[in-house]
Design a protein that fits this description.
The chain has about 450 residues and is α/β, with parallel strands linked by helices. It has two domains: about 1-220 and about 410-460, Ribonuclease Z/Hydroxyacylglutathione hydrolase-like (Metallo-beta-lactamase, Chain A, 4-Layer Sandwich), CATH 3.60.15; about 225-405, Rossmann fold (3-Layer(aba) Sandwich). The protein is built from 14 helices and 22 strands. The chain has helices at about 40-45, 65, 70-75, 85-110, 130-135, 225-240, 255-265, 280-290, 300-305, 325-330, 350-360, 375-380, 415-420, 435-445; strands spanning about 1-5, 15-20, 25-30, 55-60, 80-85, 140-145, 150, 155-160, 170-175, 180-185, 210-215, 245-250, 275-280, 320, 335-340, 365-370, 385-390, 395, 400-405, 430, 450, 460. The protein has a seven-stranded mixed beta sheet. A seven-stranded mixed beta sheet has the order 7-8-9-10-11-20-21, with helices on one face. Helix 4 packs antiparallel against helix 8 (about 280-290). The chain is globular, with a radius of gyration of 22 Å. It binds zinc ion. Zinc ion (ZN) binds near residues 61, 66, 164 and 189. Zinc ion (ZN) binds near residues 164 and 189.
Length: about 450
């Protein structure tokens, strides 16, 4: 049996791991490298294996850095079967269609003479709409949590709820090879326990080998309860000042979590029932609708809320604005509204229009609830820039800026250690999906035989 790593090696994006056993090839995730234009090249380069020889792709979840190269895999000859949970399949379709549009748009922009990059690579989209539709044609069996699926004789896969986003999974691959049994557990991205919308992470009792994410392996998050409190507080004080609240959001999970927080704050009288809330993101609106369709993947706490016929996202003043004209109409509101829009890092999307209209207002506030990479407008605002450039114009930052970190969908060091500690019999652990220094810090805490693979590095198990 052979294991090799083709992404998320000493970095946080591009998850793609290949397991070869019994003459079959199983790929766990096929994610996009994200975080800057220089990564276009990483995405376009060879996979490190022959896509036409891959029999199965098991998807841990629908984030782009775990599924975003699937259309490219299909384009380069993959004809096998993709296996995922029902919610992951739906969200992956949404995410991949969005990514395809963005790539085509970006390539079109770069082909213009005024485009900043003259590289021919950047002017060609990684994949076309047809490639994306081809990859959807490979979507096969639906995995149910804790229910083994036979991939091929002597190879089975079992998905366990990872508690990271809707439908997310850790995947155990069990192999019976020449009378010997092996098991490899791929963590996927691990969530936090005690969150309102999702179940806590679950895992098999034993595994010989663990391939594990370590995104926040070097630190602990602020508590969720304190973060909710901070959010409610920031909104209440902004409303009292008479400004708008902008929340740049990530469409999957974070949006639904914030909506649920608002719902609770209104239900317990912390925020007024008359509060106007705008969800101004077609992608986030679709993700919220998909969320409502998958009770099998939600937390039981939430289900008990629902059996009391209370919609967790039911906010009396909530308006979901899909149309551009509806979005533009929000610009006329100068105070008293909560406006949620993407992109989370303000690199594109409708949030940038709302920033133009609110950043200069000292009564307004912007609340960041997620990760902001270096070089993004979100990062510059968080770091205290006096002004940011949006649509070629300098916009002064006079609004109140809040950064609330406890909404992360990733387990912190304490939760990662707990997760690993609950799996018995682990012979060795391969760390992926973290910066190198973070991995080293986490490896030191983890103990035992820990490896940090390099890109395309193969291992015999
Ligand atoms: Zn993820």
């Amino acid at each position: 049996m052979k294991l090799s790593f083709h992404g998320a090696t000493r970095m946080v994006t591009g998850s793609c791991h290949l397991l070869e056993a019994n003459g079959r090839r199983v790929l766990i995730d096929c994610g996009l490298f994200q975080g800057g234009r220089e990564l276009n090249e990483d995405n376009a380069s060879e996979f490190g294996f022959d896509p036409s020889q891959v029999d199965f792709v098991c998807l841990t979840h629908a984030h782009l850095d775990h599924c975003g190269r699937l259309p490219l895999l299909a384009k380069r000859g993959f004809r096998g079967e993709v296996i995922a949970t029902a919610a992951t399949f739906e969200l992956a379709r949404l995410v991949l269609l969005d990514s395809t549009h963005l790539q085509m748009e970006e390539a079109r922009h770069r082909r213009r003479p005024s485009g900043r990059s003259r590289s021919s690579l950047a002017a060609t989209p990684l994949y076309s709409m047809l490639d994306t539709l081809d990859s959807f044609g490979r979507f096969g069996r639906v995995a149910r949590y804790a229910t083994p699926l036979e991939l091929a004789p002597g190879i089975r896969a079992t998905f366990f709820d990872a508690g990271h986003i809707l439908g997310s999974a850790s995947i155990l691959i069990e192999v019976n090879e020449a009378g010997r049994r092996h098991s490899v557990l791929f963590s996927g991205d691990i969530g936090n326990s005690g969150r309102p919308l999702l179940r806590p992470p679950s895992m098999p009792r034993t595994a010989d080998v663990v391939v594990m994410e370590a995104t926040y392996g070097n630190r602990d998050h602020r508590s969720y309860e304190a973060s909710v409190e901070e959010l409610h507080d920031a909104i209440a004080t902004t409303l009292a000042r008479g400004g708008n609240v902008l929340i740049p959001t990530f469409a999957l999970e974070r949006t639904q979590e914030i909506l649920f927080c608002l719902h609770q704050a209104i239900a317990n009288g912390r925020l007024p029932r008359s509060l106007s809330v705008f969800l101004d993101s077609p992608m986030a609106i679709s993700a919220t609708e998909i969320f409502a369709r998958h009770p099998e993947a939600r937390s039981t706490t939430l289900d008990s809320e629902l059996s009391g016929r209370r919609d967790p996202f039911d906010i009396p003043g909530l308006q979901m604005t899909r149309e551009t004209s509806e979005s533009r109409a929000i610009n006329r509101i100068t105070g008293g509204a909560v406006i949620m829009a993407g992109a989370g890092m303000c690199t594109g999307g409708r949030i940038r229009h709302h920033l133009v209209h609110n950043l200069t207002n000292p009564n307004a506030s912007v609340i960041f609830v997620g990760f902001a990479a270096q070089g993004t407008p979100a990062r510059r605002i968080i770091d205290g820039a006096k002004s940011v450039t949006l649509f070629g114009e300098d916009i002064a930052v006079r609004a109140h800026i809040h950064t609330i970190n406890g909404f992360s969908a990733h387990a912190d060091q304490r939760e990662l250690l707990t997760w690993h500690g609950r799996v018995d019999g682990v012979r060795e652990t391969y760390l992926v999906h973290a910066e190198e220094t973070v991995m080293q810090a986490f490896a030191a805490r983890l103990g035992g035989r820990v490896l940090m693979p390099r890109l395309h590095e193969p291992f015999d198990l």
